[in-house]
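Fig. S4 source data, part A: sequence.
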Amino acid sequence: MFFNKVILVVTAFLLVTLSQAHPAGFNFGWGSHYGGRTRGMSFGLSPQFYQFSCPQANDIVMSVLEKAIAKDIRTAASLLRLHFHDCFVQGCDASILLDNSATIVSEKNGGPNKNSVRGYDVIDEIKSKLEQACPRTVSCADIVALAARGSTVLSGGPNWELPLGRRDSKTASLRGSNKNIPPPNATIEGLLTFFKRQGLDEVDLVALSGAHTIGVARCATFKQRLYNQNGNNQPDENLEKTFYFGLKTMCPKSGGDNIISPLDFGSPRMFDNTYYKLLLRGKGLLNSDEVLLTGNVKETHELVKKYAQDESLFFEQFALSMIKLGNIRPITGFNGEVRKNCRRVN
């Protein structure tokens, strides 16, 4: 009888302790509501995941972001893009943050990332402050997701309830970074293939492309449209003429690959729906922007028009699609790890 009571007390203690560490609750089965790479037991993602273990996590993230974005306005777009480029490779697992090591071939050297993806230093600073406040608690993968949401909000965009509880990968995939991230010259068919591979549909494609309402692109990513769109040494006929000549002036046929141009020159610092309005006027910067309207897919064409007319509709769908993006194959439960330094495995 005595031993039975002891077992009951110990069991109750463990359940209370684990429920505080994982307030999302338990799912003793195969998979969870939001999906997680687990074996036998899985933990779903939850907005309240750090409610007890690190309740100040988001405040710390936002305080670093506010200073970083005030110092460099491009930081917001860079952190949004960082989240996207992380999740599309092997899920939202912070694999993009890992540097080269004896066991890691870094995704940072992948074609879509090298000399292009930014914001690593901001993630480092957030991680450092979180380690001081809540050691070995908040994962780098969750930091990337929180930074993407915070960057959107601080730029004037929507907020959303963000599911948390991702853990960090112990691996990276250079091959995946070269294979799975859509290029800026993608066709509409290519874009849909890339997105559907991640469980994202036409609505997600058009809504998430709206992140281009902030940020810039290098001349190298749109030069083809100016000088040789179809292999005939002619520009893209979909480019509005004044816009075309302006781009041609700043982006020469030879050289100048790193010269930058805003993706949304109408309101480059504000997260709004101007991006879609510009697409309707033939002023989308990248081929992957313009084909949302001119590609042979009626649904994407109609969505561009709807989001151009109704900013609140765009904001609502952007938030939903960002949640969906952030739920791509997260590592949860006891798999992976919480890195102490986001650039290397523990």
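Fig. S4 source data, part B ends here. Strands lie at 216-218, 260-262.
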